[in-house]
Amino acid sequence: MSIICWLLAGGLVGWGAGLYMGTPTQHAFIFNASFAALGAAVGTWMLEPVLGIAPGLSVFGVIVGAVCGAVALTLVHFVRRFVTA
After folding, report:
1. Contact at 8 Å (CB) between 17 and 70?
2. Sign of CA dihedral 19, 14, 69, 83
3. Would you state the pLDDT for residue 24?
4. Average pLDDT for residues 43-64, to the nearest whole number?
5. Are 36 and 10 contacting, i.e. CB atoms less than 8 angstroms apart?
6. CB 5: neighbour CB atoms within 10 A?
7. How far is Cα 57 from Cα 46, in angstroms, rounded to an integer?
8. Are 9 and 42 within 8 A, CB to CB?
9. pLDDT at 8
10. Which residues in 53-71 are b (16+ Cβ under 10 Å) and which e?
11. How far apart are CA 69 and CA 14, in angstroms?
12. Is 44 in contact with 61 (CB distance < 8 Å)?
């Protein structure tokens, strides 16, 4: 259940990032949401033992997932910007 919440939190972050950055295509929204969800799942999975996040559904786990998704999406956009420039 917690993985689903991490994926949803990351997806919402990706969707919000797409709205914030003004990406006009549906393809960009799908990329943002899927990559942020992947970043949220992987980041929370890695930080779970370090931060002491309890297994299962917790507000702290969802917040950490959203932050990890935002960080992963930011890194991808920075890399894409420097590679294409």
Report:
1. yes
2. negative
3. 64
4. 78
5. yes
6. 20
7. 16
8. no
9. 77
10. beeeeeeebbebbbbbbbe
11. 7
12. yes
- Copy the structure tokens of residue 73: 């999406």
Which amino acid does the sequence have at 53?
I
> What are the two backbone dihedrals, phi and then psi, of residue 52, each rounded to the nearest 5 degrees?
75, 35
Centre a 10 Å sphere on the Cβ of residue 16 and count the other Cβ atoms it contains.
17
Give yes or no for residue 6 having a pLDDT over 80: no
The ranges assigned to domains in the chain are: 2-84
The reported pTM is 0.75
Q: Can you give the pLDDT at residue 71?
A: 84
Closest CA to 65 of 31, 27, 39: 39
